[in-house]
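Q: Could you fold this chain for me?
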Amino acid sequence: RIRACGGIRQAVAQGVITSGIMHACIRHGVDFVLGGSVRDDGPLPEVITDVIEAQRVVAEKIPGVGFALMVATMLHSIATGNMLPAACRIACVDINAGVVTKLADRGSFQTIGIVTDVEPFLRELLEYLEADGGADGD
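A: Sure. Below is the predicted structure, expressed as structure tokens.
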């Protein structure tokens, strides 16, 4: 359905995607980079399939990032964490305890690991932000 719309941004504009992380990113003008892998089977239009190009684009977006939330994506979290400056704080959330320690094991000492199911974590985070006035439900 997303390909038929022309991509994620177009799917949001057409009302096909009405909630979730990608919807919130697009609605609020948050930059994102989707990097593919050799395992991808027909990636979405926004996915950069050239790994070197994806790394270059991520490097362009990193300056000024002060906090990164890594959620349930070990390989992307490690790759991005390796590119972030030491001053950037990182929270890595995954249900697998081995995943949340991998980033710290690779030298990202500023990482805090949270072992939990991602869905209730995000639900609780949203409730906290809404109660604090920091989010509008996206």
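A (continued): The two ends are 21 Å apart (CA to CA).
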